[in-house]
Design the sequence.
């Protein structure tokens, strides 16, 4: 190409542009050379003769640009016209390299072969790497790349064949053989790195651009695998040695190097991983069978965790990362999954009984990893039901039933939270299990829950209010599982009435707080009567304040103070009427209040309940005066001893004077002659009450406190009282059943017997028998709410 340059300044500008282009070419060449020698760990970069790109000037451009590939411009081919009048710059194309003789090619290959042999024999290399690289490049430019590649492959093959023979003749086994094999591989790999650096130009210009060819490095690996690792003896000895060393946990660095060799050669999966996993399976299968029979479950679970941690560590030390997953799954399968049922049968119950939450968490995690959580949940449900049934069905444990259930539920909740990771499936299993065994005895759990709450809300309870509130919340959890909530309501209302009327409640605020919780659980209809009881107490308090302000009360009041609670019959429990003979002083105040009430509420009728009254009496004893807090019946009996000279009365005298029912009289007398507060003495002196007994005041009575509470004897609860409460519940249920039948039939108009029974069982919230439902249907037929179909006796029709 020729260009006319008229002024000299333009020629100088063109020269400057060429200079800049040549420098950039030199930079690219040096950068590529740096990368090549850095990759092959050559000392070129640290050579003192090396100059940075910035140190090159025009004097070295020619030598630098000799390395430029054939399509680049060489500085030696640029001519500047010295004549100012010609004003031309000529740039000529590169010439084709001159052909050389075969002798020259063989001579050049001889240099490379000598270098290869010296590298393989670990001898110093005669020529520099730069010269050898230039030789390889020159041969490639002479189109001898194929010849060069084939001869390089042959030299590597010969070397590997000799190494195979040496290793096959090696008498060593296991560790010694592995060390020898590793030395062979390490040396060969280092040799191939150096050889590749020499033949890099061959790889770039021939191997990478020729189909079916691989680089010198990959060729070396293929030859090592083909002519050395295909040897059955070498493979067998190396695999046996590796497995043995892994079992003994020895020579980890050698193992890591050899397993990297397996990966580099592409034989890791079939040559090592599969045999390794098979051998590991055999080992753990044998170990699991032995340990599951000899170890305690907590120790076995720890052993499994230790083995899993060890296998993970093994993977990080020398195994390939892709082996981690199948290896861990294998260990989990052999040690956990195959023995899941045996583990649970042997140790689950003992772990829960011991509240071993750490071991249960370990069991949960292991079973979760092998997909056996459903089996664990099944055992959890079986255990909960079995232990719960033992508590509920054992009548000897009725007195502690609710406390035992509360403790049991709290324990399982803690296990659920800390060990089972708050798993929703386990939570549902726990709820279903409690609901099943709590309703085995239809009425008893609901009754005992009511009594347990009564014991916590009584003033005799020594717990603080926060502790009581916490216990009530736990009990409320059990209450949610009870189907007979109407039974609970009946017994709770009866106990609440006693606490309110006898002033035995720990706190009215606590009472109201618990009723609010019941209201949130069951709705306002469930607690309307309970709230009405508190309303009556507030009205009674206001009524008594008005009564004490009357002139008649003030004129009559001496040393007796009367307090009356007026109750709405529909809100309060049903009490058996009990007519007793009151002392004259009490009768006077009772009539006074009755007149006051009738004047204030005309038309209302008062019905007195003496069984719920209590009194505070002053007792004058020879050894000190005391204040006695007693029930109304106790007070009536004690008043009798004020009117006798001898202070001695027979059983029949007391019975005739008080008119108290015999069973109640026996219980009341027992409370006065037994325990720490023996106010009365009985002759003969024994705890059994007979009609021939005599009673007298205890002249030796003394007590450290001024005010003494005389508790009534807590005999077994009267069967009649329980029957009354149960009967009231049954009557309420009958009304609910009748209403449900009428509601269903009004909507359906006509239904057969089976369909009606099924719908009733779905709608009713309490357990009921089909025979009881049939009785209610017959009752409605008798009352003309329903009729039997004339064509089919099993079909009922609704009568509008």
Sequence:
């Amino acid at each position: 190409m020729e260009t006319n340059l008229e002024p000299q300044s333009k020629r100088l500008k063109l020269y400057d542009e060429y200079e800049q282009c040549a420098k950039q070419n030199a930079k690219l060449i040096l950068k590529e050379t740096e990368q090549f020698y850095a990759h092959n760990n050559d000392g070129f970069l640290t050579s003192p003769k090396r100059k940075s790109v910035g140190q090159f000037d025009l004097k070295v451009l020619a030598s630098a640009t000799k390395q430029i590939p054939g399509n680049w411009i060489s500085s030696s081919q640029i001519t500047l016209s010295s004549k100012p009048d010609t004003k031309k710059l000529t740039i000529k194309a590169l010439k084709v390299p001159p052909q050389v003789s075969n002798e020259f090619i063989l001579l050049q290959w001889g240099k490379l072969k000598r270098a290869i042999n010296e590298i393989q024999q670990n001898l110093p290399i005669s020529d520099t790497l730069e010269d050898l690289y230039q030789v390889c490049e020159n041969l490639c430019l002479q189109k001898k790349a194929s010849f060069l590649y084939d001869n390089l492959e042959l030299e590597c093959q010969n070397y590997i064949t000799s190494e195979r023979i040496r290793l096959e003749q090696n008498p060593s086994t296991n560790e010694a053989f592995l060390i020898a094999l590793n030395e062979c591989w390490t040396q060969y790999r280092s040799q191939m790195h150096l050889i590749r650096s020499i033949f890099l130009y061959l790889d770039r210009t021939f191997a990478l651009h020729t189909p079916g060819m691989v680089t010198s490095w990959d060729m070396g690996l293929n030859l090592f695998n083909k002519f050395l690792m295909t040897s059955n003896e070498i493979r067998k000895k190396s695999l046996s040695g590796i497995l043995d060393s892994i079992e003994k946990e020895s020579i980890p660095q050698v193992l890591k190097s050899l397993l990297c060799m397996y990966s580099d050669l592409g034989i890791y999966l079939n040559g090592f991983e599969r045999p390794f996993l098979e051998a590991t399976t055999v080992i753990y299968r044998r170990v699991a069978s032995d340990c599951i029979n000899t170890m305690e479950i907590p120790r076995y679970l720890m052993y499994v965790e230790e083995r899993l941690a060890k296998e993970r560590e093994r993977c990080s030390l020398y195994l390939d990362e892709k082996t981690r997953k199948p290896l861990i799954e294998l260990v989990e399968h052999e040690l956990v999954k195959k023995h899941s049922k045996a583990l649970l049968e042997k140790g689950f119950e003992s772990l829960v009984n011991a509240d071993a939450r750490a071991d249960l968490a370990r069991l949960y995690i292991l079973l979760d990893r092998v997909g056996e959580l459903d089996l664990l949940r099944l055992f959890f449900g079986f255990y909960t039901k079995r232990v719960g049934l033992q508590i509920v069905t054992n009548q000897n444990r009725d007195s502690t039933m609710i406390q035992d259930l509360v403790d049991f539920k709290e324990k399982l909740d803690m296990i659920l939270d800390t060990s089972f990771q708050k798993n929703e499936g386990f939570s549902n299993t726990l709820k279903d299990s409690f609901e099943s065994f709590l309703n085995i005895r239809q009425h008893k759990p609901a009754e005992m829950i009511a009594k347990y709450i009564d014991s916590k809300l009584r003033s005799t309870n020594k717990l603080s209010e926060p502790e009581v509130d916490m216990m009530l919340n736990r009990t409320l959890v059990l209450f949610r599982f009870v189907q007979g909530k109407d039974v609970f309501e009946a017994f709770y209302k009866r106990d609440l009435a006693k606490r309110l009327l006898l002033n035995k409640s720990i706190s009215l605020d606590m009472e109201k707080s618990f009723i609010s919780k019941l209201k949130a659980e069951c709705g306002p209809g469930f607690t309307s009567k309970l709230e009405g009881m508190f309303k009556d107490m507030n009205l009674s308090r206001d009524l008594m304040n008005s009564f004490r302000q009357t002139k008649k009360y003030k004129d009559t009041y001496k040393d007796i103070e009367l307090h009356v609670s007026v109750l709405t019959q529909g809100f309060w429990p049903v009490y058996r009427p009990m007519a007793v003979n009151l002392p004259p002083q009490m009768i006077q105040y009772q009539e006074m209040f009755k007149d006051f009430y009738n004047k204030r509420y005309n038309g209302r009728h008062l019905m007195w309940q003496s069984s719920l009254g209590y009194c505070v009496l002053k007792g004058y004893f020879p050894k000190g005066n005391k204040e006695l807090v007693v029930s109304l019946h106790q007070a009536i009996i004690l008043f009798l001893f004020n009117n006798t000279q001898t202070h001695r009365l027979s059983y029949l005298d007391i019975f005739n004077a008080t008119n108290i029912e015999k069973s109640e009289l026996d219980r009341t007398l027992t409370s006065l002659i037994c325990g720490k507060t023996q106010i009365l003495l009985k002759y003969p002196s024994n705890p059994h009450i007979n009609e021939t007994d005599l009673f007298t005041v205890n002249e030796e009575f003394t007590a450290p406190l001024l005010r003494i509470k005389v508790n009534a004897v807590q005999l077994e609860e009267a069967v009649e009282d329980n029957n009354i409460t149960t009967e009231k519940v049954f009557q309420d249920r009958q009304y609910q059943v009748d209403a449900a039948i009428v509601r269903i039939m009004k909507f359906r108009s006509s239904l057969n017997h089976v369909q009606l029974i099924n719908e009733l069982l779905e709608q009713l919230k309490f357990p009921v028998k089909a025979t009881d439902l049939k009785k209610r249907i017959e009752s409605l037929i008798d009352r003309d709410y329903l009729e039997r179909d004339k064509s089919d006796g099993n079909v009922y029709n609704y009568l509008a």
